[in-house]
Amino acid sequence: MELFLDEEDKNRFLETLLRFKESNNYELYAYCLMRNHVHLLIKEVEDTIQRLMKRIGVSYVYYFNQKYNRVGHLFQDRYKSEVIDSEQYFLGCSRYIHNNPVAAGLVRFPEEYHWSSYSYYLAASDNRNLLNIDFLLDHFANDRAKAILELREFTESNNEDEYLEYQDVNIESGIQRVDWQKVLAAILKKHNTSLEDLRTTKDADRRNLVLQEIKLVSNFSIRELSRLLKMSKDTIFRA
Known about the structure:
The chain has 239 residues and is mainly alpha-helical. The protein is 51% helix and 5% strand. Strand 1 and strand 2 form a beta hairpin. The radius of gyration is 19 Å and the shape is globular. The model is unreliable at 166-178 (pLDDT under 50).
């Protein structure tokens, strides 16, 4: 299911996070709201992550069902989690979360995506009182301006981060994974090219035009497209 049908839904989810932060006193270091899933980098304090996620989920689903006059579950299965047990893991996880919209082809740079915590880090502020931005920035430098510059460089650098990789379906276009070959063939035919030509052409403008359409229509992650097209992630990302 799509979790958010409009901006009001996304704001409501963030308000729910803040409300339970005030009562459960957990720490939130990063978040990213996508169409049909959410990434959170959380440290439990007064309550367990299990109880916290249940309370957040129940509250938001109640709001969603009331608003859209529906019943039943919204989230598929139990949430998935990984334990952060090192500084390197923590930094990499924050980078992965903030780059999720980039990997999905929604934006070219993480700061362009409104529904993640990244822009608050670059502004060195949290007007929702939701984030603990000091903990992450202090890993880079004591001087705040220098820390922001180093965070930006770290976040936007090429990497191979893989955490809880979310495999989803393109809800907006309705394209299922089983239709991928048909979709790709149609795009290549439209541009009068082949996959092999796309991989080897020296005409970057023409290649980027095709890749842009593939990213727009399929909405696969950059990592997935790299594997499916057998092209470098950097080439696909820069298209």
